[in-house]
Design a protein that fits this description.
seven-stranded parallel sheet; globular; 40% helix; Rossmann fold
Length: 343
């Protein structure tokens, strides 16, 4: 059973990484439903300054330029703030490849940054809900799973509903280690210190305000490349599958979690679009060709290290906890992305 404890209540949010893709969508949703939002971001990621400008011009939200890995910067910031009902901790290093280039910085942002936020809440505001972003990468490369190869996609026949939270954890690469560490700290601070925490092991999120690169935001990146007529160099043969979750649906989930999380509970949950919103790269290309009438030019290549052939989220646990489920289907979401590119 899920219980709603703050239905209709005004929520004061702190959104770290608030000028990022997911943060901008959450801030937009929060303000539109009558909540208050404070934005914190170090603006290091390309595109974040565009999102910061959007938040300023649309809602009058200024961005507090702070690095979450600096305890001193965070402490000085919190000392000037009123309390928060909820912290959406979205600040993160989001690229597996970047983590290979600079593992220490990856750790500082993802693991230490999360610990800094949790320690502030534990010591100063234990009633604040903390929701952090984990990753499907905490499950490793899933080589223990039996996959079969279809004409357009890889399939995991033993997991028709997707992967649930009982998949064994296996942190691969510095990114997997840092995100996995953050995931476990979030989970354990709920369990051990009685805080209200959740860690969202999310699959592929897409939607407005995303400024993609090849190693993050793959759907929007490939769509941009295809529309501009470029020859796309793939990692692998294009049959890798992910379930796509629209950012506006994820924003709704954050609110549902604040209404649902009880202190002292273990809320590490898989979150994605689910089976009905799953897509391979080849299937995305076929969709683009149907919609635009233009063939997509691509070349196959070597797979990425530790890449999962399939990750589809089984959302049963998060739905049971909150009553939430995705509402934007993949066709709708892709149409919206395509329209924004062509507009």
């Amino acid at each position: 059973m899920h219980t709603h404890i703050r239905i209709g209540d005004h929520v004061r949010w702190l959104i770290t990484g608030g000028a990022g893709f997911i943060g901008t969508n959450l801030a937009t949703h929060a303000i539109n439903r009558g909540d208050e939002a404070v934005i914190l971001d170090d603006l290091s990621r390309s595109g974040s300054e565009l999102n910061a400008s959007f938040l300023e011009s649309s809602f009058g939200l200024s961005t507090n330029r702070i690095d979450v890995s600096s305890r001193d910067e965070l402490s000085a910031f919190f000392a000037k703030q009123e309390g928060f009902d909820a912290i959406a901790h979205l600040a993160g290093q989001v690229s597996f490849l970047a983590s290979l280039e600079d593992p220490r910085r990856d750790f500082e942002i993802n693991a230490l940054g999360t610990l800094n936020i949790l320690e502030h809440v534990r010591q100063n505001s234990p009633e604040t809900t903390v929701i952090g972003m984990s990753s499907n990468k905490v499950y490793g490369d899933l080589t223990q799973v039996h996959f079969i190869e279809d004409a357009t996609r890889y399939i995991a026949p033993d997991y028709p509903a997707g992967f649930a939270e009982d998949m064994p954890l296996a942190f691969h690469g510095p990114y997997g280690c840092s995100k996995g560490t953050a995931d476990q700290y979030l989970t354990d601070y709920g369990r051990i210190f009685g805080l209200k925490t959740a860690s969202l092991r999310q699959s592929s999120v897409y939607g407005p305000h995303q400024h993609p690169r090849s190693d993050q935001g793959w759907v929007a990146h490939l769509l941009e490349e295809a529309v501009s007529g470029k020859t796309i160099q793939l990692n692998g043969v294009g049959k890798q599958v992910r379930d796509l979750l629209h950012a506006t649906d994820l924003a709704r989930l954050f609110v549902a979690l604040v209404e649902s999380i009880k202190p002292g509970t273990d809320n590490a949950v898989n979150v994605g679009g689910g089976v009905s919103n799953s897509l391979s790269i080849l299937e995305l290309f076929a969709w683009i060709e149907r919609r635009t009438g233009r063939a997509v030019d691509f070349r196959t290549g070597d797979p990425r290290p530790s890449d999962q052939q399939v990750f589809i989220s089984d959302n049963s646990r998060v739905t049971e906890l909150t009553g939430w489920s995705p509402s934007v289907d993949v066709e709708q979401g892709l149409d919206g992305l395509l329209a924004s590119l062509e507009g």
